[in-house]
Design brief:
The chain has strands spanning 2-7, 10-13, 18-26, 31-37, 44-50, 56-58, 66-71, 76-81, 90-97, 109-110, 114-119. It has no helices and eleven strands. The chain is mostly beta strands and 120 residues long. It is globular, with a radius of gyration of 13 Å. Strands 2, 4, 5, 6, 9, 10 and 11 form a seven-stranded mixed beta sheet that branches. The termini are far apart.
Length: 120
């Protein structure tokens, strides 16, 4: 089992930054992903990072604005979100998987989500 706990969401203005954290415990899986779900929309891939190499992938909608990092000592991954836009408003989830993927079904374990709201 893997337990994931997100934190760091909040209400910000367009152009601001936020950093989300995802603390992992339990069995270790190599890939940590970030997804988001806005009201009335499907959950979508945002980005991912691998524990071993730190390789990252991002959706086109956030490339150049979002970055990911990991801290092995804290078993925590981070999603740094810069230049936030109102369309970034959603509940953000972290998830764990054995291999790289961008589909919801690729990920076996999920956190509870954290709300990010960007006002215009």
């Amino acid at each position: 089992q893997v337990q994931l706990v997100e934190s760091g969401g909040g209400l910000v203005q367009a152009g601001d930054s936020l950093r989300l954290s995802c603390a992992a415990s339990g069995r270790e899986l190599n890939v940590m992903g970030w997804f988001r779900q806005a009201p009335g929309k499907v959950r979508e891939f945002v980005g991912s990072i691998t524990w071993i190499s730190g390789r990252t992938q991002f959706a086109d909608s956030v490339k150049g604005r979002f970055t990911a990092s990991r801290d092995h000592a804290k078993n925590t991954v981070y999603l740094q979100m810069n230049s936030l836009k109102p369309e970034d408003t959603a509940v953000y989830y972290c998830a764990a998987a054995r291999a790289l993927g961008q589909r919801v079904d690729d990920y076996s374990y999920w956190g509870q989500g954290t709300q990010v709201t960007v006002s215009s």
